[in-house]
Amino acid sequence: MRLWSNTTQWPGGVLPSTGDNITVNGNWTILMDVDVIGLNNITIDGDVFLTDANRQLSANFIWVRYGSLNAGNSSIPFQYNFTITLNGEKNARTYTVDPLLSVNKYIVVTGALNLYGKVP
Question: What single DSSP character describes residue 119?
Fold first, then answer.
């Protein structure tokens, strides 16, 4: 189990910062214990779990490829706020998601997105 805030686990011993492109490796399980703001893109091949606090995740592109992004579970719902923000200008460069769709900001889930929260 890794903490997102632990610099020693990231390549070069440096935390991801604004504008970075990062991949959570497939053999990683990470606790997101800090807000992750302003990434260019994040690809999740491992498993990311939120710690018990309000959290923010923002990037231009988020791809939960082979792994999972998790907030709470069916028996213990997440009791805090989790905000996902897709950044990017309206006229920014576009990327092809599939042959019929080109966009300039996106979240794609081909792995698992498990968001369990308190009942409104």
Answer: -
Query: DSSP class of residue 78?
Result: B
List all residues 6 or more positions away from 61 whose beta carbon is below 8 Å from its beta carbon: 40, 41, 42, 86, 95, 105, 106, 107
The answer to whether residue 106 scores a pLDDT higher than 90 is: no
Distance CA(33)–CA(50), nearest Å, equals 7
Inter-CA distances, 57 with 23, 40, 61, 80, 102, Å: 14, 11, 11, 14, 22
Reported as a single tens digit per residue, the pLDDT across 19-33 is 999 999 999 999 999
Give how far Cα 31 sits from Cα of 13, 61, 94, 119, Å.
17, 20, 31, 24
Integer Cα distance of 57 and 52 in angstroms: 15
Tokens of residue 89, six digits: 């200008």
Q: Are 60 and 89 within 8 A, CB to CB?
A: no
